[in-house]
Amino acid sequence: MRPNIDISHTLNGRVKDYAEQEDKDLEEAYQEIIEAGLEAVEHPDEP
Asked: 38 to each of 25, 33, 34, how far by Cα in Å?
């Protein structure tokens, strides 16, 4: 389910595509992507 924030349809579509490719439900895909993004922001120099 799409979070209750303003997310473009294009971005939401990309998350849906990712969820399908990884055999995840949409909520799980959003959670994984958000966690990875936060990790990247908190530790920008780590690979």
From this structure: 20, 9, 6
Rounded to two decimals, the pTM is 0.74
Nearest to 5 by CA among 35, 41, 43, 34: 34
Q: How many CB atoms lie within 10 A of CB 34?
A: 12
pLDDT (tens, 9 = 90+) of the chain, 47 residues, equals 555 778 889 999 999 999 999 999 999 999 999 999 999 998 878 76
Which residue type sits at 3?
A: P
**How far apart are alpha carbons 47 and 31 in whole angstroms?**
20
- CA–chain centroid gap for 9, Å, is 13
